[in-house]
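Fold this sequence, please.
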Amino acid sequence: MEKRWHFIPPEDNAKSLELSSAINCPLPLATILVNRGVTSFEEARDFFNPNLANLHDPLIMADMKTAVERVLTAKKNGERILVYGDYDVDGTTSVSMMYSFLKPHFDNIDYYIPDRYTEGYGISKAGIDYASKNGFSVVIALDCGIKAIEQMEYAREKGIDFIICDHHRPGEKLPAALAVLDPKRSDCEYPFKELSGCGVGFKLMQGLCAIEPELANANPPADFIDLLAVSIACDIVPVNGENRILLHHGLRKVNENPSPGIKRLLGEHASNDREITVSDLVFIVGPRINAAGRMEHATKAVALLTNSDETQLTELGSLINSQNQERKDLDRAINEEALQMIAEDSWYENAVSTVVYKPGWHKGVIGIVASRLIETHYKPTIVLTEYDGKVTGSARSVRGFDIYEAIDACSEIIEQFGGHKYAAGLSISPDKVDEFKEKFDQSVRERIKEKHKQPVLDIDAVLRLDEINNGFYKILRRMGPFGPKNMFPVFATHYLDDAGYSKVVGSDESHLRVVVKNEDSNVMISGIAFGMADKIEIVQSGEPFSIAYTIEENTFNGKTSLQMKVKDIRFTDELLQ
């Protein structure tokens, strides 16, 4: 589907010019910085030099002192502590980090990850029963718990003190835990609100070290910052403020001295000379950690991330790699099956949503399949399967459309649901599937606007080809690490001509290698456009065209040069009319 190009307007031209001069930075990059909230020399200095010393005081966070005092009391009294976390990447890295940090100081410590299929997301009564039966008096819950109202009442009856470390938005009522650490609490004065669940756990570790400094001498929190980097990258939290500082230093540790578990997950990627990036954490490390919880049980991922024994690392790494391959095979097969169902059913031709259902589809991968279906059919999407007599589903949305609200309008035929604007989970009775499909599509139809029906490509700045040089790229790279709120900049150049060397490439001839120049300049640059072989017609038409792209380094035959990584190609006159 053709993308709509959206040119992000400059926030403040005068400030962009001023910043460009103050830090000796090309104006297009200064404009991007101002658009992202970096407006002064001092802010730019801190932005380009992320410093752990600029992290906020953890003791500012609501309930932090209570949490710290309870953990230190447990340490003094030799009490048993259970580290509890969700089964996704954020939860398993949180548990691995906290468990590894506390273990040298607690003889009686263990961890617990709920089963995705029998317990579901968050704090379960089964988990509380496990803590009670095994004599754990303190439970540190990470990346979950902020809505565990009933569960906390149950825990209090059992005499268990819970410390909740969560980053999700609270409901109207807070759970009655001993301490609830969540910067999104309305009464919490902690300045940065967008920490990951692992990030909140990291602040608890910092708080413990602030009150009892010898903890930091034995086991500094920064030793685990690579685990935190994986959490930040994979949980899609904003990469600004504290998250950017933590991710910067976490990536440095991944590249210089990764924990044995992360090194094992990176495999051959950790042993070559290439720098490990955020993309590597998202597309190599994250899926392997997730695969353990999707295909079997996430405790295997925690066992890997907390281990240093080479034999066990090899066994666990091999198991998780095979589970990840199984997950990939499953999600590919289910995606193909779902696409075929859509193609063969005329209902979808007029529908404004996609709802597909088949008993037997693996519950652990239907969220991935929902995201993949949007790549082909750009509509709010729900994939349903049946497990243990109940139909469960994963929902994913398109840009700007609130799928949670659309599902909420069908609540009278839904047994349970939760989530947020762009992703949700739900369960319904098997005999309600057809009714839900119709009602959800009607709900989407009442809310969706034309702007939601077409994918959008944000363009940060328009460049001339002669502006792209090594100095420009050096500053561009230092604007990372990239992620939400600080995405890798996308540029556009208009009125391009084919330099005569563009051609279709790849074993299946699906890709396009372009070599282009500006109409009024002899400056040439090459680019690679994956999956865009059909765009050769535009490039070789003789008409001026525009390319949207990111800039990257390409090494070929020992020579490194800058190239475009093409996002889209359009006729300039058609685009700017």
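The mean pLDDT is 94. Residues 14 and 31 are 10 Å apart (CA to CA).
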